Amino acid sequence: MKNNMKKLLALFLVLTLVLAGCGQKAEDKKEELEDKLEDKVDQVEDKLDGDDKKEDKELGELKFTDMAGREVVLDGDRDDLLVIGSALRMYTYINGTEKLVGIEKAQQNKESGRPYIMANAEGLAALDLVGEGFPADVDPELVLTADPDVIIAGDLDIKTLEELENKTGIPVVILTTGSEPVFDEKMYESLKIIGQITGKEDRAEEVINYLEDAKKELENLTKHIEEDKRPSVYVGGLSHKGNHGIESTKANSQVLDAINANNVADELKDEGTVDIDKEQLIKWDPEIIIIDENGLGLVREDYDKNPDYYESLRAFQEGKVYGQLPYVSYYSNIETALIDTYYLGTILYPEEFKDIDPVVKADEIYEFMLGEKLYDQMAEKFGGFMKLEFK
């Protein structure tokens, strides 16, 4: 409704200017022009009335439970949205930058290496600022200036968000990307809620089905491989609250589990990303080592200081050390985690993945999820898929 009124006001302004510009010499044509313009206004009003009815049908009152367990009721005014925190990434999968009226400053920084910002840099840069971001610290006064109908927030403090809701009077919907980098059920539920809010339920289901189809494909490619045919692998340099060196890894990694990999770190009881004792890596001595490229610079620095340590590992001796695109940056970039999963499949099981070009697959996934092929930009920034050399 707000957008329709804006269109009508803009149209009336144009009509006024046109009529005023007719001048005395064109007085004899003025009446004819006014009749035509009046007909045009009637046509536009009829169209807008039809659009309103369509919007009322598609975006009427909506009731649901958000990911914080809060009962939410939204009316039909959902043309203007503010999306903050990790929810913005998921939102762009469903609706790009459409309907957005504000942005956190840090969510405009395409140099951050976050694909959802790269793919939507122009649209995000045009939005009014509502705060700094990372973590989200939106200014209620700036939020009111942006005047969203709904605020969608991801993985932020619930108490703070409820205070924002109380201060602004604008309903807040709380979402989460979940605890896993990809194939997370809570993330799927968040995508569905975004689809409901935006009227893009079909797109939300399309994204979820795409991810689930990929999960099935990866399982089918690797489930038959016998245990003793699966090379041992270690992934180091993973980010968690900043960048880390080779000692940073993850047990029960969904990225590796999706391809039935023999992850040496699975014997750890810790959940999430952890820093191991570097001597533990020597004990494990995996056949293949993957370095997340967020931590690659730290690994290179450490190698220069302690080359003997690294050269005692057979993966370094045999040249089986590879770089992967970093997927952790302000929570997980879901599409890049999926891309890495396919890439690691080509490293661990070249025969089973012989028909998959990881670069082509990467751009296919980026284009589906974000509307743009981004592998070259990511590779330029981080290094891309490659065998790593240290000597």
Quickly list its features:
single chain; 391 residues; alpha/beta; Rossmann fold; 2 domains; five-stranded mixed β-sheet; three-stranded parallel β-sheet; 17 helices; 49% helix; elongated; disordered N terminus
Strand content: 5-15%
Low-confidence segments? 3-26, 47-57
Helix percent band? 40-55%
The strand count comes to 14
Tally of individual domains: 2
CATH superfamily of the largest domain: Nitrogenase molybdenum iron protein domain
Mind describing the biggest β-sheet? 5 strands, mixed
Structural features, described:
By secondary structure, this protein is an alpha/beta fold. The chain folds into 2 domains: 62-199, Rossmann fold; 229-387, Nitrogenase molybdenum iron protein domain (Rossmann fold), CATH 3.40.50. The protein has helices at residues 2-20, 27-58, 87-95, 115-119, 121-125, 140-146, 158-168, 185-198, 201-222, 254-257, 278-284, 296-305, 307-311, 314-317, 334-348, 358-370, 375-382; strands at 62-65, 71-74, 81-85, 102-104, 128-131, 150-154, 172-175, 232-236, 248-250, 262-263, 273-275, 288-292, 321-324, 386-387. It has a 5-stranded mixed β-sheet. Strands 3-6-7 form a 3-stranded parallel β-sheet, with helices on both faces. The chain has a two-stranded antiparallel ribbon with strand order 1-2. Helix 7 (158-168) links the parallel strand 6 (150-154) and strand 7 (172-175). Helix 1 (2-20) packs antiparallel against helix 2. It is elongated and about 60 Å long. Mean pLDDT is 88; it is low at 3-26 and 47-57.
